[in-house]
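Hi Prof. W.,

I finally got the DUF1223 domain-containing protein prediction working! I wasn't sure whether to trim anything, so I left the full sequence exactly as given:
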Amino acid sequence: MSRCALLFAALLGAGLAAPALAETYVSPVARAALLELYTSEGCSSCPPADRWLSSLLDDPRLWQQLVPVAFHVDYWDSLGWPDRFAATGYAARQHAHVAAGVLPLAYTPGVVLDGREWRGWRAARVPLPDAASAAGVLRLERRGERVDARFVPAVAAPALELNLVRLGFGLESAVGAGENAGRRLRHDFVVLGWTRVALQADGEDWRATLALPGTAQAAARQALAAWVAAPGDPRPRQAVGGWLVP
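And this is what came out:
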């Protein structure tokens, strides 16, 4: 065996892995719509909203024009069924929408579309922003557990934040107590982990490097979604998403 072959075999034996291939997610220039559902497994009114959100899997506008996410809140847990997907931080985000005047109160199922309350989800197709409204390009590059984000805005801003979430799909729970006792619930677009960081100005660009949000719940099918907003502003500047390669 040649010396080069021996070296190659030694490297394989040492378990050295090839560098992770990058996954890239790029938004359009026109603003994509961010759709937030606030829901809970402890709420008997929520399963119809969960099923409606799952129907968006077949929407041809998914990820490039429409980015749906489902935040499970924890304020229903006291009725006997702790929602395993819920987190206090998710409920806090909904309460921040109340404080900002987006919602009249924290309720489920509650839908926020592009930073505004939207009650038409039962009967209407999700309306999109004007295609002529240039927002800028949000680009994410994921390598393993690291994500590099770059946003080139169409309109200058003094400060911007990046929200990054990991989403789970095809998740099921056999509910044993509370308002949905005895039911088997299925969920998609579930926020399993959420990270928010300040973007740093780099000329006309805004950049950040961060870890992919971790999760305590397993999901065979996952996606990544992100949006950019000014600090304290519920209205997203731009959003993008896409499937995660296992």
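The chain has one domain: 20-243. Does that look reasonable to you?

Thanks,
D.
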